[in-house]
DNA sequence: GGCCTGCTTCGAAGAGGGTCGAAGCGTTCG
DNA sequence: CGAACGCTTCGACCCTCTTCGAAGCAGGCC
């Protein structure tokens, strides 16, 4: 057994670096200046941290003009963040703004590439049933998915992702990815420009109970 | 977004603590003295680290007589360790002893509760086929599993675990758990007293190619 | 070309955490 | 009952790592 856990742990250990990773948690690319303000540190400090994260293989960087865009190095880094969040205590809310933000995240967010939060759990319950270690598309679920233009058959298996705010499973993997994509295309959900929260639109509020048969949380 | 990644990261960041976690990675309980020698630090230092790990919710402790047994706090901690190992660089081998040990681990080990390593991948390939995001028991696999007394049907889905040494998927979850249990019962594999490596017995060397149709790596 | 902007490098100051020896406390065994 | 054992607490030393101001370096706009 000789993976160097400590070097990865050290990268996560600094609050400023952790905030950077969380800000990039959905796979977006952000420039150094935005990450500096997101982390609450000066540009030199942020630059230092970003260099360490790139060096440690957690981030990649791409230069475009005079900006440098940073992003997670891959899905396995996003999975790492989820795994850590699952065992981490919930941080005390520092401000009212953080409070409403946290509430929005608990309601609906993306988890790298699929829908999570309370809404993610509710949608999952309408479409799949637990089977062994993964999730299986139910007969009713297959019909609902077909109705909104997602190709899936009864009995297809879907990867289960354990939600760290809800402590319940929701649909991830390929089906989770295409489903979220479709919900955004239909404009039932909208991305937030700066956080991982997802906004339920009026169209979504009307359509989700009707088309998927879920009661909105 | 407000999980306190940094506090968990700080716990992983110290080499001594990382070694402790790895030593407990398969779910065993070990006394403080063993963990101190495993981590290569003095008893006071180990005690200090163990207290922090318990305080941080990564370990649990049980007093039995004058010994105190430490263990991982749960499966989600084991998953965390796997997720970290997957992104961590492989540590340089410090000694010859470490070298043979690392080799044994790459060949066959348990990953909390299921078989991993090269042998884990080989066994998986004989029994399941990838399907969407998880693994599905093949017709041939179901027959082989029945032959060794493991109950599984064709088409059953099994959780896939990405091996951090092989970078390939292998069977985890419920099927992985019962399969490893059965292989140990049959005495085809034996646990190592001090590491996560698994020893292939002579019986196993003869039976695995015959019963499961795998070529031993 | 000249200036502004975005980002990084350099240097020094400061804080935090790891380490071990010595000592204390409870348990077990003779 | 006393001694040995396992583990923890205390205290002091040391070291690494973070932090920001100032300066340097490049790309883009006028």
Mean pLDDT across the residues of chain A is 89
Strand order of the main beta sheet of chain A, please? 1-3-2
The residue fraction in helices of chain A comes out at 40-55%
Largest sheet entry of chain A: 3 strands, antiparallel
Number of helices of chain A: 10
In the predicted model, the low-confidence regions of chain A spanning at least 5 consecutive residues are none
Strand tally of chain A is: 12
Task: Give a structural overview.
- Two copies of one chain form a homodimer.
- The first copy, chain A, has 217 residues and is α+β, with helices and mostly antiparallel strands.
- The first copy, chain A, is built from ten helices and twelve strands.
- Chain A has helices at residues 5-13, 15-23, 32-39, 43-55, 75-87, 96-107, 117-127, 139-147, 173-185, 202-212, and strands spanning 30-31, 59-64, 67-72, 109-111, 114-116, 128-131, 134-137, 157-158, 160-162, 169-171, 189-191, 198-200.
- In chain A, the strands form five sheets. The first copy, chain A, has a three-stranded antiparallel beta sheet with strand order 1-3-2. In chain A, strands 6-7-8 form a three-stranded antiparallel beta sheet.
- The first copy, chain A, starts with a helix and ends in a 5-residue tail after the last helix.
- The relative contact order of chain A is 0.11.
- The mean pLDDT of chain A is 89.
- The interface between A and B is large, with 62 and 62 residues.
- The first copy, chain A, binds a DNA duplex (30 and 30 nucleotides) through helix 3 and helix 4.
């Amino acid at each position: 057994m000789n993976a160097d856990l400590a070097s990865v742990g050290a990268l996560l250990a600094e609050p400023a670096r952790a905030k950077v990773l969380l800000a990039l948690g959905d796979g977006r690319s952000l420039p150094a200046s935005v990450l500096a303000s997101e982390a609450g540190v000066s540009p030199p400090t942020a630059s230092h941290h970003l260099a360490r994260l790139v060096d440690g293989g957690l981030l990649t960087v791409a230069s475009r003009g005079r900006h440098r865009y940073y992003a997670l190095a891959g899905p396995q880094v996003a999975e790492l963040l989820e795994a850590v969040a699952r065992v981490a205590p919930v941080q005390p809310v520092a401000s009212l703004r953080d409070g409403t933000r946290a509430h929005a995240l608990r309601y609906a967010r993306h988890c790298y590439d699929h829908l999570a939060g309370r809404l993610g759990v509710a949608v999952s319950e309408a479409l799949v049933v637990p089977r062994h270690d993964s999730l299986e598309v139910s007969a009713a679920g297959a019909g609902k998915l077909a109705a909104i233009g997602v190709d899936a058959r009864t009995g297809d298996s879907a990867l289960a992702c354990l939600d760290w705010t809800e402590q319940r499973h929701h649909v991830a993997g390929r089906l989770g990815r295409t489903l979220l994509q479709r919900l955004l295309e239909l404009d039932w959900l909208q991305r937030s420009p700066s956080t991982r929260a997802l906004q339920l639109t009026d169209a979504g509020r009307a359509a989700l109970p009707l088309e998927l048969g879920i009661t909105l949380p």
